Recover the amino acids of this structure.
């Protein structure tokens, strides 16, 4: 048996049910691991060890009394942009450094309904703006496969706690790739659900028409279990869709014969690392061996405008969403000021980091009178075109397969002063948020010991198809079972 902190949810659940281990033992193994590796990876902003042990004791009582829910007593970490009642929720920003929410996000409330163990809150790029977790106002997070490299972002902390065996699973959020790209960089499984599938209530808003919460796990089966707990309609989120929630574990049959996948050529972008392209070709060949038919000639020509459209739409929405941080309602407030305006200015000057300020300025500019039509409206039109292009592709295919990122994890410091290079690391994931589609990233190989992720994209509400294909791939490969040596 592997160490307790290395188990999947389904393995840990079986041991809990068979009374071979207790939730307290599982939790202590994770906390021990956190103490050991945190000084190297810095994935957590807050560790809630006392609360975790208390929740574990309660879970053990429930398990003894016959509770059989697969998440009962399983230790998890939550990205620090999801509100947790009584637990600091910082968004890795000085603005919210001491913010303790008086309520739980819907996803947290839903998880709590199944008596999980919450180990803590994970580090992220400030307000989820970034691709490397270097834009955290507190400290950068390091990749366990090579600590001189980034774990991806913005959910870098959530990916690392799973990859470095600090937690059994984690929640992340994805606005342009922030679940999938770090999942790819850390060799874990990460799902960005269809827009509207999982409630955003209590998720600190970045770009509301793009944000979506999802799981980061050790395998696809675990991903299905977490989706069962967090998906579903929520009247408190006006964009939540009242679509029936299936049992996501039912689709994990391993049988993918006859499914049709397309491999769009535009996702093998210029500058893509050769090993990444090769790994994805091999992975598609594996899928073909399992009975899938693959078409390599698919073209989605408007993909090339997705990045430009995203960097108009996301900053525009961010500039509106972040207007609420004025030092009055909650969060950081500059005390020494000559006037109300001076106080607001100082609050925002000190409270926000450089990347957040860059986005606010971009967004404010794009939305200003005289520029609105040229930028924001144009970007929205491109958005429609991209969405339709995907719709047409899904008339022919059950799923599309692409690399998750053009490269393996880069060095800490390599791109942090070059925003354009940083933005490019999401070229394969951004179009999916633009179109509101679901997509999963799963481990698909290594180049010189550094992880490579494969992205599988589906039509709206086809999470089951994605999980089915991804699960069959994990039955045929063992990339997802490899552990970093940290
Ligand atoms: N890296 C992209 C950005 O910086 C996406 C981030 C995200 O998905 N939250 O906006």
């Amino acid at each position: 048996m592997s160490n307790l902190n290395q188990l999947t949810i389904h393995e840990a659940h079986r041991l809990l049910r068979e009374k071979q281990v207790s939730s307290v033992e599982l939790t202590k193994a994770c906390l021990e691991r956190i103490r050991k590796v945190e000084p190297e990876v810095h994935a957590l902003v807050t560790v809630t060890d006392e609360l975790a042990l208390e929740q574990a004791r309660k879970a053990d009582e429930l398990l003894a009394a016959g509770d059989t829910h697969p998440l009962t007593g399983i230790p998890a970490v939550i990205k620090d942009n999801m509100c947790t009642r009584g637990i600091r929720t910082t968004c890795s920003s000085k603005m919210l450094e001491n913010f303790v929410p008086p309520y739980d996000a819907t996803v947290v409330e839903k998880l709590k309904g199944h008596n999980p163990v919450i180990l803590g809150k994970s580090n992220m790029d400030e307000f989820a703006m970034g691709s490397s977790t270097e834009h955290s106002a507190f400290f950068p997070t390091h990749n366990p496969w090579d600590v001189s490299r980034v774990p991806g972002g913005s959910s870098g902390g959530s990916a690392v706690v799973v990859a470095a065996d600090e937690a059994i699973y984690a929640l992340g959020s994805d606005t342009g790739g922030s679940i999938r790209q770090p999942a790819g960089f850390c060799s874990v499984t990460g799902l960005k659900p269809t827009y509207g599938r999982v409630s955003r209530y209590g998720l600190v808003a970045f770009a509301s028409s793009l944000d979506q919460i999802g799981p980061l796990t050790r395998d696809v089966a675990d991903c299905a279990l977490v989706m069962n707990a967090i998906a579903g309609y929520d009247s408190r989120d006006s964009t939540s869709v009242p679509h029936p929630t299936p049992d996501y574990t039912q689709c994990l049959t391993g049988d993918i014969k006859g499914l049709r996948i397309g491999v769009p050529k535009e996702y093998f972008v210029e500058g893509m690392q050769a090993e990444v392209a090769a790994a994805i070709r091999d992975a598609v060949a594996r899928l073909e061996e399992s009975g899938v038919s693959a078409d390599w000639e698919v073209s989605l020509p408007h993909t090339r405008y997705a990045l430009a459209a995203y960097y108009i739409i996301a900053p525009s929405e961010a500039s509106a969403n972040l207007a609420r941080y004025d030092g009055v309602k909650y969060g950081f407030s500059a005390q020494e000021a000559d006037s109300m305006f001076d106080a607001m200015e100082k609050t925002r000057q000190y409270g926000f980091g450089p990347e957040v300020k860059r986005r606010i300025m971009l967004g404010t500019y794009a939305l200003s009178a005289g520029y609105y039509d040229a930028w924001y409206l144009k970007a929205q039109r491109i958005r429609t075109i991209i969405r339709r292009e995907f719709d047409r592709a899904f008339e022919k295919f059950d799923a599309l397969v692409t690399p998750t990122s053009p490269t393996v994890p880069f060095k800490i410091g390599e791109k942090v002063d070059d925003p354009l290079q940083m933005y490019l690391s999401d070229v394969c994931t951004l179009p999916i948020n633009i179109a509101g589609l679901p997509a999963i990233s799963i481990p698909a190989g290594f180049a010189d010991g550094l992880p490579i992720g494969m992205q599988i994209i589906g039509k709206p509400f086809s999470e089951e198809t994605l999980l089915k294909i991804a699960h069959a791939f994990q039955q045929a490969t063992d990339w997802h079972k490899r552990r970093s040596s940290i």
Summary: DSSP finds 15 helices and eleven strands in the chain.
